[in-house]
Every structure is written in C-alpha cells, then in structure tokens.
Amino acid sequence: MIKVLLLIIPFSAFALGQEQNQAGTAVAGPHIVNSPNALFQARATGSVQLDPCQYMLQQLNQTSRDLMQHEVNTLEQCLYYYLAGESAKKLAKLNIPHAIASIPPNYLSQQPVTINFAQFTLQHFELNEHLKDISIHGYLELSWHDDRLMWNQDTWKKNKLVVHSFHHIWVPLLGSQNPENHLKNGDAFEIRKVETTNQGNVSAKVAFSLRTFCDDTDFENYPNDVYKCCFSFEPQQDREVIQFTSSGLPIFTDPKNFRDYGWGVSGTVPESFDDPSEIAQLGFCLNLKRAHSSLKIELAIPLFITTALFLLPPLFGSVKIQIYLKMFVMGLQFMTLLIFSTRIAPFLSSTASTPKPMRFLEIALVFNLISITTSIIIFCCMQVKRTLPPWGRVTQFANFINGFLGVLNISGVEEYNLDKYDEQVSQNSYQKDWANVFRAAHAVLMGTISAIVIFVYIVYCL
C-alpha cells in the first residue's frame, strides 16, 4: 500500500503543477514579449512581436463585431507603437531616440514642412485704453503632413488616430512677436487636440493667449476711433524646415464665449510672409471700433447745443445784446471743453492726436472770441459822432444788405437801447446812415463767421 502511495504522489504533484501553470497563464493573458522601449531601439518593430497587438489584429480579422472602448484604446496604442517602431527602424543609423517625436518630418530630405493655419477663433479680449495694449484669447486649427504617420487601413481597420499627448509625435512649436517692436509679451500656446489620418495628414487645435500694443493714431476720430492691433506667429524650433500657409479665412468669434464689451471687432485675413532668407511668419490684425451709442450721444448733444446758441445772437438785432449772448455762449463752450477734457483725458495717454470734438470746441471758442471782438469794435464805432455822411455807394450797399437781411436788422433798437443815442441822431441826420452801414458790416461779418462755424461743425462732428 505504501508503495502504491509513493507512486501516486509524484504524478499528483506533477498534475497539480500543470494546472497551476495553466491557471497562471490564463490569469496573466497575452503578454508583451518585448518592452515598448525596444521599439525605439529598432529591435522590435513589427506587430507580430507584440502579443496584445497581434491578438487585437486577429480579433479585427476574425470577428465583425464593434470593438469596445478599452479595446479601441488598446488598438490605438498598438498602432502608435507600430508607427513609432517603424520610424525608429528607418532612422536606426542616426541613433536618434524617439525619432517620431523628436525630429520633424522630411528630416533626411530637408524638404520644407508646410504648416497650414486653417482657422482662427477669438473667444475673449481685454483692451486697456490707458496703456493702449490688448490681450486676446482663443484657439486656432493647424494642419500638416507627416509621412511617418501613414498605415494600412485594411490591416488596422482605422482611418483616424487620436494622439492623446502631443509629446508622442512631432508638432510645431509656435511663438509670437510684435511685428513693430519685437517685444516678447509672455504669450502662451497650448496644444489641446491632435489627430492624424492613415494618409499622414495631422491636425491640431492650439489654444493661445497673446498680448500686443495697439496703434492709436486714429484717436482723433474719438469716439469713432479704431484701434488696430497686429499679431504675428513664427516657429521657435526647426525654423529652417518650416513654412507657413493660410487658408484665407478671416478671424472668427466664438458665439458662445465671445463678448464685445461695446466694441465692434473685425479681423483681417491671416497672411504668411515666407522669405527663403528669413524665418517663416504669419500675421493678422484686429480692428476695434467703439460701439457705445450712449458715449456718442453724450458728446454730440453739448456740441449741438453750443453751436445752435452761437448762431442765435445775430437774430436779436442789437449789437449790444449780441455781445452779452456771445459771452454767455463762450462760457458754455469753455465749460463743455473742460468737461470733455476730463472725460477724454484718461484715454489720451501719450498720443499726439486731439479728438475732433475737442478740436471743434477749440475752433468754436476762437471764432466766438473773434465774433465778440468784432461786435465790440463795431459797437464802439457806432458811438462816434460824425458830421459827414458815408459814401453814396456804401449807403446803397448797406441799405441793400439791411433789406436783404432784414431779420438781422431791427431798426430803432440801437437808438432806444443806447444811452442818449436818440439825442445824437436828432442832432445829426448823418448818424443814422452811419449806423445802418455798421449794422450791415456787422451782419456780413457775423454771417461769415457763422458759416465758417457751421462748416467746421459738419466736418468734425458729422
């Protein structure tokens, strides 16, 4: 009996060992014979040498069911490692680690890699009118061709590969410089999504945050001025093999996140500036125009009121009354100029341009002063007692003007309003003729000044 047990125990132990080995194999499943690091050393480059990848390929060929999500992820990893291994195999002599990500396409041929800027989308902007600078945020779409990312669709049953980390393949590193003063402004770029097709066409979305200074030479048209803010891109690495192209699409705004903050935003079409002797650059500009209707009303109403009041004094006839009214209007114009200066001063910064509303007020003040001075001189001339009549033609011309501009000549007003003017007229019959001449001259001069002010108002305020 003991001999029989001694014979059975070895066989049982052997069978138990076989079952444990089989169970261990079943638990472990397919395993990778060569580690992924071997791919980059060009020692294992075929899918046959990767057990999990070979298993996935067999599943694709033997079954017609759709793969589950984890199987799709595994297949994408296998496809990427296969492409990386093939690239490492081709460049094994150069001893470049991770060649598919560390060197650009066409590295051996040194042919240019064309980076196409498909679309710019603006999501947000911040304009500082005090410093005349702007910060913009958004994203852009890039595309280029990389023949190292081509595969057989019949074998892998996939026509698109999502690259979950942009460090896994070569991507262009962009930088930004201000095209005018070439100052670095702390611009930022972030690659968020990279995809490639089986034909080697790679596309990526790049989020950007850019800052630049704006051209404020149009500030004289305030509040209808336009800020022109220009940006440019250039490659930071592999500059000698990169060239830029543009799809010809204008700048878009994100309808979900974009806010205009009272500015009308329009963008130019991005254009590339490729020169064989220079670094590839692509530039575009944003034009921001004020869209504050309340601000326009705030500036337009005071200008209209002061201009209308400036034109009213000649209707009162009496030169003395006109002088008082013009002085009152001058006070209003001066107060309006002070208010506008306080309102606009924070935005003047270092600009040398004077806004048109303020320039119109300056001109209106000057002409109002000229008008007051002229009226005072004519009023003084009317007080001088004369014993000789004016020239005949002058009298006729004055009578014609006074008749034609009867609304500007109220006869008798001066006589009744001036001290002892009636007595002087009764004593000298020629004094009335001289008064009519001075009234006519005053009407012509005031009409000329009023016409100039109206013309200036149309030019600067309309």
Protein described:
Residues 1-17 form the signal peptide. Residues 103-236 form the Neurotransmitter-gated ion-channel ligand-binding domain. It holds the Pfam family Neur_chan_LBD. It comes from Caenorhabditis elegans. Keywords: Membrane, Signal, Transmembrane, Transmembrane helix. This protein is of the alpha+beta class and 462 residues long. The chain has four domains: 1-25; 31-103; 109-291, Acetylcholine Binding Protein, Chain: A; 294-461, no CATH class. The chain has twelve helices and twelve strands. Strands 1, 2, 3, 4, 5, 6, 7, 8, 9, 10, 11 and 12 form a twelve-stranded mixed β-sheet that branches. Strand 5 and strand 6 form a beta hairpin. The chain is rod-shaped, with a radius of gyration of 43 Å. The model is unreliable at 1-45, 179-183, 407-418 and 421-427 (pLDDT under 50).
Write the layout of secondary structure elements.
Blueprint: H1 2-28, H2 51-62, H3 69-90, H4 99-102, E1 113-128, E2 133-150, H5 153-156, E3 160-163, E4 174-176, E5 188-197, E6 199-215, E7 226-235, E8 242-246, E9 251-253, E10 263-267, E11 271-273, E12 281-290, H6 293-311, H7 319-348, H8 356-383, H9 392-404, H10 413-417, H11 421-427, H12 430-461
Parallel strand pairs: 1-8, 1-9
Antiparallel strand pairs: 1-2, 2-6, 3-5, 4-7, 5-6, 6-7, 7-12, 10-12, 11-12
Helix pairs in contact: 2-3, 6-7, 6-8, 6-12, 7-8, 8-12, 9-12
Mean pLDDT value: 77
Name the CATH homologous superfamily of the largest domain.
Neurotransmitter-gated ion-channel ligand-binding domain
Helix content: 40-55%
CATH topology of the largest domain, anyone?
Answer: Acetylcholine Binding Protein, Chain: A
Which architecture of the largest domain per CATH? Distorted Sandwich
CATH class descriptor of the largest domain: Mainly Beta
| Structural class by helix and strand composition | alpha+beta
Per DSSP E runs of 2 or more residues, the count of β-strands stands at 12
